[in-house]
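General statements about sequence and structure are easier to judge against a single worked case. For one protein, we set the task of working out the structure tokens from the amino acid sequence alone. The sequence in question and its structure tokens are set out directly beneath this paragraph.
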Amino acid sequence: MKSSSARRLIAAVLCLFVASGLTACSSPAAESGTKVTLGFSAWPGWFPWQVAQEQGFFAKNGVNVELKYFDSYTDSLNALATGAIDANSQTLNDTLASVSGGAQQKIVLVNDNSTGNDKIIAAEGIVSVADLRGKKVAVEQGTVDHYLLLLALAEAKLTEKDIELVPLATDAAAAAFAAGQVDAVGAFAPFTSVALERPGSRAVANSAEFPGAIPDHLVFTAEFVKDHPTEVQGLVNTWFETVKWIRDNKGPATDIMAKRGGVTADEYRTYDAGTTIFTRQQNLDAFTPGTTPSHLNYQAGKIIDFMLATGLVKERPILDGLLDDRFVKAVPE
């Protein structure tokens, strides 16, 4: 789930000196000897990593990247939490769940916000979330669409106890709904396309109704950030160069991302409005402490409150150092 950014072409790799807090520019570097294993899964805001690989932007920015695609988003979360990979593409909600379980992680980049590509899709005759009472709803437990479902139920004055939750991986949940085995499903693009193949189906809630609730990030283990800041910077630089290339080469970029998502280019274009790619400035604004849903510290607090209230976590995690904006700040404007 989900649940990208747009901007700058970078010609140099920035070297970050953690101890002094200073940055210095170097000439374009050869690919680093330290390999970064980067995980991502099926979400439009993360498919630009596939573009970065195919266009050679990792090497151009001096980073040696092993890009690892996970068919199961949950598997990618577990891989980062256990140190099997160095970095992962994941939501704020799921990062907080990992941190509450003791994982040491750092968010270094906001890829995007989900603005409609996470949906609660229901069968014909179900016209609102309130109509889900007593119905079978498939969703991947503990992930962001489970969170979206709980938010939507709460707004309709319902709880999870008012439905029959069917726990399934997102791809299986969408397939089960399309086959008529459940009454509704919580899913993210591109799996929403599978779910909507069911005749008469419709979205009764989506992430656009909960602004800022589902931001998506590049998340590293804290140890890797401490030991390899230059590689982290190279990956952040790569991101902004990639999304600029996508903006300037929309057709070829869409073909690459659609292929990775297993959909047609035309179908992939329907996801554009539902995933808002963050610019560098939007990243800086999000990392700045504030009191609105656009600020990550505020959104993290709201998510934790909800997770505590629903029993998804048992105690409030310590978030000191989780949000690390050094690398976005070091990207040239």
Remarks:
- The chain is about 40% helix and 20% strand.
- The longest helix spans residues 229-248.
